[in-house]
Specification:
This protein is of the alpha/beta class and 387 residues long. It contains 12 helices and 15 strands. It folds into 2 domains: 4-246, Thiamin diphosphate (ThDP)-binding fold, Pyr/PP domains (Rossmann fold), CATH 3.40.50.970; 253-382, Rossmann fold (3-Layer(aba) Sandwich). It is globular.
Length: 387
């Protein structure tokens, strides 16, 4: 095992990318992801990483470069946030449709307007159906470990899809945490060399992302859906092998004090740690409350969600974004859909919290649970809104 050091999570994530021996990094600076690519630029400039760093003129160009480099057979990385993701979104869909295993670290940030540089999940929800594998990190160690996991999964020949690694902006990106580093030997054991399915080369001419007539477009989309759903076995296998290498076990969702819980909180990202403190306090008060940490957002672990939530009377979803005009929120909508036909269907309550980086404390989470349990499970609340 490598050394354990206190380090900014963004820098640690960049060090992990460097250990993966990437070939191309294409990026444009945007708060709060800039420290990731700044450090990668330093690693390249100082000769610690033999890679091509492409400082592009926009995020749209960044993902375009990533498509080209991945199609040419290069291990490729980028990073962005919020408006940057919005600008590159056209190419985000193209990347997955062409089955190019780019890894992107998304430093989750609220979308404008009004302008906010702070954290919520409105950016990733904008592209939730873009065909990427999507994982959420609870803390810095998870973010560091999942850089290796992302390349391992995305580049597997049975998958060959891009992976979006979600890390809450500022809440994780800019904090200093103790991170247990991997050694080069560990990375070599875990991450095989990238062997792309197809590459652009003048000696073997292929076409990628060509014009799809109506007769074939639907078939391609069904094929994309199949490979994304079937990637689940590779995701799980990669987690099992990661545990053998570093000793940390990850899964599509984690349960915390869920045994015997009548009420379950479901959340994604760093708010899970806040929610766990609230669960501790509520348990001390005799309340039967537990926590479900949803790590794998796409492909959605439907069977595990049903198993985890099936025994609860109430599920309180902590959403970090809105479906404007939809009377709901994205994660809640998914959970209600998954549980709709279950014989023992819990009341699924929607609590939207932390928009634009507004603080959420353990006491706030406890208040949200109390507020939710007063409802029927069909309403939604935006917690803490004034007036």
């Amino acid at each position: 095992m490598g050394k354990k050091v206190g380090i900014e999570v963004s820098i640690a994530a960049a060090e992990a990318v460097g250990l993966c021996d990437v070939d191309v990094v294409a990026a444009y600076p945007i708060t709060p992801q800039t420290h990731v690519v700044e450090h990668l630029a330093e690693l390249v400039a100082e000769g610690h990483l033999d890679a091509e760093f492409v400082p592009v003129e926009s995020e749209h160009s960044a993902m375009s470069v990533c498509c080209g480099s991945a199609a040419a057979g290069a291990r490729t990385f980028t990073s962005t946030a919020a408006q940057g993701l919005a600008l590159m979104s056209e190419i985000v869909f193209i990347t997955s449709g062409m089955r190019l295993p780019v890894v992107m670290l998304l430093a989750n940030r609220a979308l404008s307007a009004p302008l906010s540089i702070w954290n919520d999940h409105s950016d990733v929800m904008m592209v939730r159906d873009s065909g990427w594998i999507q994982v959420f990190c609870v803390n810095g160690q998870e973010a560091y470990d999942h850089v290796f996991h992302s390349f391992r999964v995305g580049e597997d020949p049975k998958v060959s899809l891009p992976v979006m690694l979600n890390m809450d902006g500022f809440t994780l990106t800019h904090v200093i945490e103790p991170i247990e580093f991997w050694t080069k030997e560990m990375v070599k054991e875990y991450l095989p060399p990238y062997k792309p399915l197809n590459t652009l080369h003048p000696d073997k001419v292929v076409t990628m992302g060509a014009f799809g007539m109506p007769e074939i477009y639907a078939e391609q989309k069904f094929a994309h859906e199949d490979v994304l759903k079937n990637s689940r076995s590779v995701v799980d296998q990669a987690w099992e092998e990661l545990a053998k290498v570093c000793g940390r076990k990850y899964s599509a969702l984690d349960l915390y004090k869920a045994d015997g819980a009548e009420t379950l909180i479901l959340a994604m990202g760093s708010i899970c740690e806040t929610a766990s403190l609230a669960v501790d306090k509520m348990r001390e008060q005799g309340k039967k409350v537990g926590l479900v940490k949803l790590r794998l957002w796409r492909p959605l672990p439907i069977d595990e969600i049903r198993k985890a939530l099936g025994g609860a009377k109430d599920v309180v979803v902590l959403d970090r974004s809105l479906c404007l005009g939809g009377g709901n929120a994205p994660v809640t909508s998914e959970i209600r859909s998954v549980m709709y036909n279950e014989a023992q269907r819990p009341n699924v309550h929607c609590m939207v919290a932390g928009l634009g980086g507004r603080d959420v404390t353990p006491d706030d989470v406890s208040d949200m649970v109390d507020m939710a349990l007063k409802g029927t499970g069909s309403e939604y609340h935006i917690y803490g809104v004034r007036g």
